[in-house]
Specification:
Strand order of the largest sheet: 1-2-3-4-6-5
CATH architecture of the largest domain: 2-Layer Sandwich
Shape: elongated
Helix content: 40-55%
CATH topology of the largest domain: Yope Regulator, Chain: A
Number of strands: 6
Structural class: alpha+beta
Number of helices: 7
Largest sheet: 6 strands, antiparallel
Number of domains: 2
Amino acid sequence: MTLEEIAATLIELFDAEIVHNIAPGSWQIETPTFRLLVLLSEDNTWLRLLLPIIPLQEAEAFLTQFLEANFDDTQETRYALYDGVIWGVFQHNSGTLTSADFANAIGRLKSLYQVGVNDVFNRLIETRIRQIIQAAKQQGQSLQATMQNLDRFYAEGLLGEIDQNAAAREQVLTAWRSQLEKLWDE
């Protein structure tokens, strides 16, 4: 893609008023919800798209899940860490990049941003539930006995919110039961 093709595609995807050419071969698209950077290398052979996702401080507990997502889910985009921020990144040789692939990569980065940490948080929760299942099975517990232990932990205040009422506790336990039943036989 040439500079002109990149600029035209950006204007096609976003309002011209928010596409800013910040330097030769560099653009910034700033919306109320996200900021996308489009950067060409000095020799214009490589294109990089960058979109900040979340500060590292808020994401540290999920770093393993971000790396797993890079392996399993992010397709041509990647999560990356730089300067205390988790970024969505796409890199490609600009000479072989098509407008359609460029537009798809931008869409994919926007999707990573919109999902935020939800997907990686869900992965972390699933990993923790699998650990609970493994520990319960090693102790010879059944699904029912495991649920009784969780119910007791919530009733005694070992799990859950301090001011959690009975209805909220029941809702959480229903979610636990659903996840345990789904993963128990794996």
